């Protein structure tokens, strides 16, 4: 039989287990490319952080070398995420650059679309704290050049799907970062640095500096001869 004390303890424990931190930072993430279909590649390079900014970068390729991405840089921290890819080579076709950014839940993407042969570059999407710069699709041999449905989704005959520059973020400020417009803090005990304007007639020298005077001309001594050039 449970006593009043034991029931109270159980209720307190249950309530404590339901408490979540009120000020937990939202996790941000950024990745270079991912590949699915005839070849696969997990999102890389990839970073994630809900606090201090983390960075990564380099070049990646699929196992066969059919897809090669170069000039990749990614970073993520509280309230920010960014992914850039300089170029992507698929077979003999090179496309790029691409980029996606997220700042406190607001996203932007950059990268042109277009088609060449059986390769199609479809501009990505952005909004609600998530963004993808572009999606590249390659149709299977003999399936024609059309690789997407009227709604923009890849068709089943797509041999490769490459997702480029993906980011997500919430709101926050990385530790050690001052909000825009905030003056740099001074050291503890150090008075604020101020500058005193020069008074009228000052020649740009400190007030406590002695006034510069011309040196006196040397006077010839009796018996000395003047030197001529």
Structure description:
The chain starts with a helix and ends in a 61-residue tail after the last strand. The chain has 229 residues and is mainly beta. The strands form two sheets. Strands 1, 2, 9, 10, 11, 12 and 13 form a seven-stranded antiparallel β-sheet that branches. Strands 3, 4, 5, 6, 7 and 8 form a six-stranded antiparallel β-sheet that branches. It is built from one helix and 13 strands; from the N terminus they run H-E-E-E-E-E-E-E-E-E-E-E-E-E.
Map the helices and strands.
Layout: H1 4-17, E1 28-37, E2 41-49, E3 54-61, E4 67-77, E5 80-90, E6 93-95, E7 98-103, E8 106-110, E9 114-116, E10 119-123, E11 126-127, E12 130-139, E13 158-168
What string gives the helices and strands in order?
Answer: HEEEEEEEEEEEEE
Mean pLDDT: 76
Major sheet attributes: 7 strands, antiparallel
Give the strand tally: 13
Summed up, the helix count is: 1
Q: Can you give me a brief rundown of this structure?
A:
With 229 residues, the protein is mostly beta strands.
Which key phrases capture this entry?
229 residues, mainly beta, six-stranded antiparallel sheet, 1 helix, 13 strands, 41% strand
């Amino acid at each position: 039989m449970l006593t009043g004390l034991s029931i109270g303890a159980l209720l307190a424990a249950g309530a404590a287990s339901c408490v979540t931190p009120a000020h937990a930072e939202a996790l941000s993430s950024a990745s270079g490319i991912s590949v699915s279909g005839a070849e696969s590649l997990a999102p890389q390079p990839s970073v994630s952080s809900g606090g201090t900014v983390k960075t990564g970068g380099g070049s990646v390729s699929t196992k066969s070398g059919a897809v090669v991405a170069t000039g990749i840089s990614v970073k993520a921290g509280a309230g920010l995420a960014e992914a850039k890819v300089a170029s992507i080579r698929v077979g003999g076709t090179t496309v790029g650059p691409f980029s996606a950014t997220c700042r406190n839940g607001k996203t932007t993407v950059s990268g042109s679309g277009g088609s060449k042969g059986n390769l199609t570059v479809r501009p990505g999407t952005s909004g609600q704290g998530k963004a993808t710069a572009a999606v590249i699709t390659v149709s299977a041999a003999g399936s024609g050049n059309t690789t997407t449905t009227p709604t923009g989704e890849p068709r089943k005959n797509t041999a490769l799907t490459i997702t480029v520059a993906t980011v997500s973020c919430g709101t926050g400020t990385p530790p050690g970062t001052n909000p825009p417009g905030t003056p740099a803090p001074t050291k503890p005990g150090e008075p604020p640095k101020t500058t005193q304007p020069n008074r009228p007639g000052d020649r740009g020298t400190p007030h406590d500096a002695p006034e510069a005077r011309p040196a006196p001309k040397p006077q010839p001594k009796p018996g000395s001869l003047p030197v001529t050039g």
